[in-house]
């Protein structure tokens, strides 16, 4: 490891209340072409709960300190000290105003944290610790302050100059435009935002449940104004949904969203002024796929919901990040489920947990939902904090039931309004209103790793009893070897070959579905009055983020696939059956029986597709993804996994081409417009098309070519393009389509990204060479995170077959790119590193090559972000 590498660890156990509080924060930004001067006036008071330290220590990084004064007294160098991270002022009074001016260079800020420029406009990203790159401050979420912001620029330089809250005044003086903003709600610095640029604005209004009018504004580049209508509708739906579902009303007179091209994440919930990655706000049927539409709706909901779960009630420290993110993901997930297909949303979420979160949880970066330490907090915006955190809240909501859960969130929002609190405070509210003992449940926050449930059963014909035995264990994770049994809400039903059976436990009738509280290492549940051996439908609705194993017979899986009324379980039964076929292929075992069962059941579904939700069927047709399959092995062979998947796709296509083609043709007339049934029909039709292109026949190439040329929406056009590019036999046609697509869409950055992505995810040929070419394409820009995601992340995390090529060149390529990106944007570099941290999943040969790539990075000068991930994952 390079000797200069920083290794400072922050620990939850070291949490101390702040020594000072900031009652008021007044900021003035003078925007100049080459630099920005920030003057701050902070009204500081000693925190009576602090330890009465004599000195004030503020955070600040990459700042040029111009002036510093306390009240009227200008400070001299003996009054204070600066380090690269801090400003310490000696012997300060109990209460004072600190005046400070710093100079910063937004145009040189390539890390996209703090104040930076994106396509000419100024914007900010302060979460988690970016505000300290703007001015010296107590940059921690438990310091909440009232903010006033003045923005000054040359008159005419920017049409739009925004900050949080309400606009107090907008004047011109001596050739300068001066815009003054005031946010009446106290907030931590991570929710501060500033935007200045030449932007167009779409406006609308929303009347809240108590009758207040709110001005809604979406700011974008002028050329993108026609792509904001869907986001605006989504915002209004989200505002209504939060009133109806959580009783939460919007609080300011104005809610603004700004779209920026260069953004490290999806979006940011700054109070009253959300900043969005263009990819999460712009949408138009001609240029946006259905999946991207749903993502826009989900992210708009997510950021809006943060206004309560995050902003009004915020986190005490960053170890509590899941308090706001887990809760808000759960809220946005329910919002999406209410707006679209609930079953499909649940399947998508479960799929992310199983194929991404379980992998994180089984590897060197595993951490609890409430971590205990970090080097760089940006590395903890993870699928564990977000998605597993959301599953933990979902389990609480299910344990309490809708009425008590709502009472508990009401209590949480009213008790902690305006405060910075902990995950424990949240659980405490759940406990108080329900009088349930959640002490064992709390382990979900502190214990990392995925519980495995081993399930076995037996049937006693004489007693008419069916017994289910569930054993749980959680494998060790770094730093946590001793795992305890968790409280797992386990939803279950029993089927015969017609329908769900009535459940009787201890003489009590439970209806046809029940939730078992699994709390011990081993538990046996006895179902009574069962007249024949039933088929268990397990973990219904994915009721807990756990792995289960139960030895299903083929016939049982077929029955569940056809009969189960829980969408997740139907899909999961299909995944199980597909997995059985695939694992036997991978092991070189005979799998004729499994194959026959699978083909037969898919045939039945396709033949009767009109009888079921087309979107659900489309999900059911996709094979278990490669990362998930890899996670089922002690040491997975990525090449064998990819080959097995392709082989099975070829086979399904070959054996069911009549049904697939028929399905494709029948759905033709149902795919117009943006309605839910039209989107569902498109998803099924395009799933059929993708299979058909596994057959090397000219008529299928023509089908795709025709769909590509005639499509009146991006979903169909892009699906056809993908089908062509992914089919090795369609290379010539695919090249033409790619050229036409670029020609048609080169002016739309987000569509160009899709063009990059389809090429980077092609499963055959020398893709690494293609990827290298794309990096020097005129439309590529290594400073733009969306482009990095479209090429490099697409290749490394969505092209399993190619990234894991046995030469190891994919791994080396990624390491080289990361070393380069880390010089400019450590957060992006660190995120792109994730696939290499999964080396432990793979056969020794692959693992060694992956580790070698990670080790090559240790020879470099690394950011704290990348250093943390590299050092932990090599451990
Ligand atoms: N709080 C944002 C969200 O809604 C994520 C922003 C995090 N940004 C970062 N650079 N770590 O999920
Ligand atoms: Zn969030």
From TrEMBL:
It comes from the Bacteria. It holds the Pfam family DUF3458_C. Residues 449-551 form the Peptidase M1 alanyl aminopeptidase Ig-like fold domain. It comes from Nitrosomonas stercoris. Its cofactor is Zn(2+). Aminopeptidase N is involved in the degradation of intracellular peptides generated by protein breakdown during normal growth as well as in response to nutrient starvation. It catalyses: Release of an N-terminal amino acid, Xaa-|-Yaa- from a peptide, amide or arylamide. Xaa is preferably Ala, but may be most amino acids including Pro (slow action). When a terminal hydrophobic residue is followed by a prolyl residue, the two may be released as an intact Xaa-Pro dipeptide. CDD domains: M1_APN. Residues 104-191 form the Aminopeptidase N-like N-terminal domain. GO terms for molecular function: alanyl aminopeptidase activity; metallopeptidase activity; zinc ion binding. Keywords: Aminopeptidase, Hydrolase, Metal-binding, Metalloprotease, Protease, Zinc. Transmembrane segments: none annotated. Belongs to the peptidase M1 family. This is Aminopeptidase N. One of its GO terms (biological process) is proteolysis.
């Amino acid at each position: 490891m390079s000797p200069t590498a920083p290794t400072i660890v922050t620990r939850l156990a070291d949490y101390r209340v702040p020594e000072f509080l900031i009652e008021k924060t007044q900021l003035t930004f003078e925007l100049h072409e080459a630099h920005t001067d920030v003057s701050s006036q902070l009204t500081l008071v000693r925190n009576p709960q602090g330890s009465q330290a004599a000195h004030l220590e503020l955070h600040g990084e990459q700042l040029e300190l111009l002036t510093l004064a306390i009240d009227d007294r200008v400070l001299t160098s003996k009054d204070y000290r600066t380090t690269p991270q801090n400003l310490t002022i000696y012997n300060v009074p109990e209460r004072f105003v600190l005046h400070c001016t710093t100079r910063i260079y937004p145009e040189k800020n390539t890390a996209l944290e703090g104040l930076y420029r994106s396509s000419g406009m100024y914007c900010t990203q302060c979460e988690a610790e970016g505000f300290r790159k703007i001015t010296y401050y107590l940059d921690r979420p438990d310091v909440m302050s009232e903010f006033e912001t003045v923005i000054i620029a040359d008159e005419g330089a920017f049409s739009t100059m925004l900050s949080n809250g309400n606009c107090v005044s907008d004047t011109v003086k001596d050739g300068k435009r001066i815009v003054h903003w005031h946010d009446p709600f106290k907030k931590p610095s991570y929710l501060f935002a500033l935007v200045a640029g030449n932007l167009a604005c779409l406006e609308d209004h929303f009347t809240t449940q108590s009758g207040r009018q709110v001005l809604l504004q979406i700011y974008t580049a002028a050329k993108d104004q026609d792509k904001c209508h869907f986001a605006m509708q989504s915002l209004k739906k989200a505002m209504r949904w939060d009133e109806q579902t959580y009783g939460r009303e919007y609080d300011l007179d104005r809610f603004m969203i700004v779209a920026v091209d260069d953004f490290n994440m999806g979006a940011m919930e700054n109070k009253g002024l959300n900043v969005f990655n263009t990819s999460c706000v712009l949408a138009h049927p001609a240029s946006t796929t259905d999946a991207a539409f749903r993502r826009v709706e989900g992210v708009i909901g997510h950021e809006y919901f943060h206004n309560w779960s995050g902003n009004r009630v915020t986190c005490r420290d960053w170890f509590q990040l899941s308090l706001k993110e887990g809760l808000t993901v759960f809220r946005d997930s329910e919002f999406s489920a209410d707006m679209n297909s609930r079953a499909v949303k649940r399947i998508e979420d479960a799929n992310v947990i199983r194929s991404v979160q379980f992998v994180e949880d089984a590897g060197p970066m595993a951490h609890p939902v409430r971590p205990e330490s970090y080097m760089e907090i940006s590395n903890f915006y993870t699928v564990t904090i977000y998605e597993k955190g959301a599953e933990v809240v979902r389990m609480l909501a299910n344990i309490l039931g809708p009425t008590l859960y709502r009472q508990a969130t009401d209590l949480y929002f009213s008790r902690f309004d305006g405060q910075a609190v902990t995950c424990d405070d949240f659980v405490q509210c759940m406990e108080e209103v329900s009088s349930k003992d959640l002490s064992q449940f709390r382990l979900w926050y502190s214990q990392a790793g995925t519980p495995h449930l081993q399930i076995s059963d037996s049937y006693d014909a004489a007693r008419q009893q069916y017994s289910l035995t569930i054993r749980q264990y959680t494998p060790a994770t770094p730093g946590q070897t001793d795992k305890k049994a968790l409280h797992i809400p386990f939803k279950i039903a029993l089927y015969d070959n017609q329908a769900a059976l009535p459940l009787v436990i201890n003489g009590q009738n439970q209806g046809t579905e029940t939730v078992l509280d699994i709390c011990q290492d081993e538990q046996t549940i006895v179902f009574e009055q069962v007249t024949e051996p039933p088929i268990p439908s397990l973990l219904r609705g994915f009721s807990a983020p756990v792995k289960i194993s139960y030895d299903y017979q083929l016939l049982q899986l077929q029955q569940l696939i056809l009969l189960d009324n829980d969408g997740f379980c139907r899909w999961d039964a299909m995944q199980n059956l597909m997995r059985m076929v695939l694992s036997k292929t991978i092991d070189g075992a005979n799998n004729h029986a499994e194959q026959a069962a699978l083909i037969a059941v898919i045939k039945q579904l396709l033949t009767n597709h009109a009888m079921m939700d087309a979107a659900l069927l489309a999900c059911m047709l996709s094979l278990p993804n490669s990362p998930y399959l890899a996670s089922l092995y002690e040491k997975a062979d990525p090449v064998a996994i990819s080959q097995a998947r392709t082989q099975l796709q070829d086979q399904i296509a070959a054996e069911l081409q009549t049904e697939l083609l028929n399905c494709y043709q029948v759905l033709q007339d149902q795919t117009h417009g943006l309605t839910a049934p039209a989107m569902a029909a498109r998803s099924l039709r395009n799933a059929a098309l993708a299979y058909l292109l596994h057959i090397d026949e000219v008529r299928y190439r023509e089908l795709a070519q025709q769909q590509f040329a005639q499509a009146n929406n991006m979903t169909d056009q892009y699906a056809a393009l993908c089908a062509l590019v992914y089919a090795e036999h369609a290379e010539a046609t695919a090249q033409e389509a790619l050229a036409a697509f670029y020609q048609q869409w080169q002016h739309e950055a987000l569509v160009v990204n899709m063009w990059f992505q389809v090429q980077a995810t092609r499963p055959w040929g020398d893709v690494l060479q293609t990827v290298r070419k794309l990096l020097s394409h005129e439309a590529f820009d290594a400073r733009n995170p969306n482009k990095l995601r479209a090429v490099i992340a697409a290749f490394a995390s969505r092209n399993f077959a190619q990234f894991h090529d046995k030469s190891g060149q994919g791994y080396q390529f990624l390491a080289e790119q990361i070393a380069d990106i880390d010089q400019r944007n450590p957060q992006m570099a660190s995120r792109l590193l994730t696939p290499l941290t999964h080396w432990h999943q793979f056969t020794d040969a692959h693992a060694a090559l992956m580790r070698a790539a990670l080790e090559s990075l240790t020879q470099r000068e690394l950011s704290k972000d990348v250093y943390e991930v590299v050092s932990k994952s090599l451990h």
